[in-house]
Every structure is written in structure tokens, then in C-alpha cells.
Amino acid sequence: MAASPRRFPLSWTTVMPVVAIVVLALSWGRDLGAVPVIIVALALGGTVLAAVHHAEVVAHRVGEPFGSLVLAIAVTVIEVALIVTMMSSGGPEAGTLARDTVFAAVMITMNGIAGISLMVGARRYGETHFNPEGSGGALATVATLATVSLVLPTFTASTPGPAFNGTQLTFAAVASLLLYGLFVLTQTVRHRDFFLPVDSEGSVKEEEHAEPPTNKAALTSLGLLLVALVAVVGLAKVESPAIEAGVSAAGFPQSFVGVVIAMLVLLPETLAATRAARRDRMQTSINLAYGSAIASIGLTIPTIALASIWLDGPLLLGLGATHIVLLALTIAVSVLTVVPGRATRLQGGVHLVLLASFLVLAINP
Known about the structure:
- This protein is mainly α.
- The protein has helices at 12-27, 34-62, 66-90, 97-125, 132-155, 166-190, 215-249, 256-278, 282-307, 321-338, 345-363, and strands at 128-129, 342-343.
- It is globular.
- One of its GO terms (molecular function) is potassium:proton antiporter activity.
- The chain crosses the membrane at residues 12-28, 34-54, 66-89, 101-122, 134-155, 167-185, 217-236, 242-267, 288-311, 317-339, 346-363.
């Protein structure tokens, strides 16, 4: 008896992008009260989750490490959209938003996603294993991108404040884009095996045998992903005044808006990395963590540099002394984590303490 063809399920992830478009149409250009603001916030959060779900469906169809790449790019598109829309409405005071969001994304991915994944994997299996060649290369890329884009502006002397001049910004944008492209080429073509899950012997694991989605389901998810991304951009524009007002009402510094954006867009990816760690596929978790950090810098900085042509106010990218220390310590600890190719709960705990330190200092500088 022939099996009946699978149908694309009518789930909340299918309905949510359409609902978000409807909410966007009803709220665009209006002064919203408390209840509509809450509805828009729920629609925004649900649409981000739905977008990453559909990215995961497409990712499952194309396999690893392409899957991690698709998910990282989808998340970064959402992040860039949130930054640009909020900077366009924030005026000169939004000059540090890109820096705050990108640095928060780096801290959350390198310490939060990696730390949680290491804790979950080590707690379940005693010790986690990953490929030091791929993980080390990804870490080197993150460190270089973060230093060029976020540290060097603090020490340049051609412009006042922690900012690049036009030539320096152009170089940083082009270098970030080229380095991101080189990483993608290495991950997906030249040394794809460096980014595949490995066992305790260092041998590449076989692909999981879960049945991939059909072409129809993958194409449907691709279409819904595009709809969701459009809805996220619009809803972020509608919700941005409420986010800024909420941060101010809580007594947090305005820079915490960047942390909120990063936490919002990276929550689904954190869940995906945690699920991979529970299946003893730590390399996938590392790919998601470092790949998101690379995409966050490598795609956001060039986009913001281009957008700065028409955005009001300066573009301040340079980190302060406290954040530079946190970044340096994170890179040093990450090197000690990835070089052996295996880790325990201790390494996971160290990374989570670094994340907690960043969050405490973000709330109370």
C-alpha cells in the first residue's frame, strides 16, 4: 500500500507570519496604547520564533553545515532590520545602537549559547566533543572581526570619539564582508568536514537519519520565512518607541536596548543549539554560536556602514575599556575551550559567568 504524501502542517508557525502581516497593517502609522503595544510585542516575538523555525526546516533540507549557515543568516537579517529601523527613528542618540547590539550578540553567542550548550551536553554525556580545526578557525574569525570593527575605532585619532572616518569605515566594512565570505567558503566547500559533528575518537559522525522535509515543505517554509522577515522589520519599527520607553522606565541605560535586540533575535538560535547539544552534536551547537557571531559582525557592520550615508548622527562603533576587557577575556577563555576539542561542565560554567558579568555591567555600568 503506497504511503500518502505528507502535507505541510497548519501549525502556529504557519499561521504566525500571516497574522503578523495583519497586525502590521492595522498598527502601521498609529499611536498605540498599552494593549496594542503588548499585542504588537507578542506578534513580533512569535514571528521571530516562526522565522527561525522555517529557517530550520530549510536548513534540515540542505543538511549540515549549510543548515547552521541558513539559520545564522536568517537571524542576522532580523538583527540588522531591527538595528536599522530603530536607528532611523532614534536620531543622533542612536549612534551607539549598532555597537551595543553587535557586542551583545557576540557576548550572548560566545558565552551564552556556547556555555549553555556545553553545560547541557556535558551534563548528559559527561564530556562533549567537537572539531578543534573548525571551531578554532571560527573563533579566529570572530576575534578578528570583533577587533577590527569594535576595538580599533576606540584608538583611532582621525575623528573625535570612538568612531572611524570614512576611509576606515569603508575598509572595516569591506574587510568584514570579505572575511565572512571566506569563512562561508571554508565552512561549506573547502573544509566542510571541519564543521561536522565528531565522536570521542574525533571521527565525523554520520548524518542523523531523521527524514528531511519534502521539497514542497521546504519551499513553503522558504516563502513563509520571507513573509516573516518582512513582518519583523515592520513590527520592529512600530514597537521601537515602546522598547526604548520600557528600558528607560526600568532605569537601565539606553545602551541596554542593544542587549534587548540581541536577546530577542538569538533566543530561538539558543534553543536550536541546546537541542543539538542534547543529541550529542556539539559541533552543530558551536557552529550556531560562532557562526551567528561571525554573521552578526560580518553582515551588520557593512550594512550599517552603508546605511550611515542617510542616517542622522555619528556612527560610534568603538567599545569602552570595560567591554574591551570582557571581549579579551572571552576570546582567551574560548581559545582554551576549543583547542582540546572536548569540554566539560567547568568550561560551560566559566562562559556563563562571563555572560552574567556582561549583563550585570550592562544594567549597572
